[in-house]
């Protein structure tokens, strides 16, 4: 099997992954998964598509992660892994789609407007 590459995004985080057959190691920016995401919740988010299909120990994944925060990066990586798994075996798509792993979350930070302190917040109104 060749190296499969895929891209996942969430907020401002971008995950580029390279997946090949192996023994289940996930390397993020040249660091181990448990090192990069110490939180077990974020580790769980990253592994969700692999666990759903029961292939967690089958592929080695090398990741370049950039931008965003912890949660955004974890969810971007989850999307990239799901997309790579579908490239490998297109029959897995309905199972991953039903769990919501194939959907790119479109929510982004709204821009700050001029004459306001934040995007929607207004300065206190004073009648006099």
Question: What does this 3D model show about the protein?
Answer:
Helix 2 packs parallel to helix 3 (70-88). It contains four helices and five strands. The chain is of the alpha+beta class. The radius of gyration is 18 Å and the shape is elongated. The protein starts with a strand and ends in a 29-residue tail after the last helix. It has one domain (4-99): 2-Layer Sandwich (Ribosomal Protein S5, domain 2), CATH 3.30.230. The model has no long low-confidence stretch (mean pLDDT 94).
Tally of domains: 1
Question: Which sequence of SSEs, written as H and E, runs from N to C?
Answer: EEEEHHEHH
User: Fraction of residues in helices?
Assistant: 25-40%
Which structural class fits the helix and strand makeup?
A: alpha+beta
CA-CA gap between termini: 73 Å
The top level CATH class name:
Alpha Beta
> What name is given to the CATH topology?
Ribosomal Protein S5, domain 2
Descriptive key words:
single chain, 128 residues, alpha+beta, Ribosomal Protein S5, domain 2, five-stranded mixed β-sheet, 4 helices, elongated
Task: Draw up the topology in text.
Blueprint: E1 4-10, E2 13-21, E3 26-28, E4 31-32, H1 33-36, H2 40-53, E5 59-66, H3 70-88, H4 93-99
Parallel strand pairs: 3-5
Antiparallel strand pairs: 1-2, 2-5, 3-4
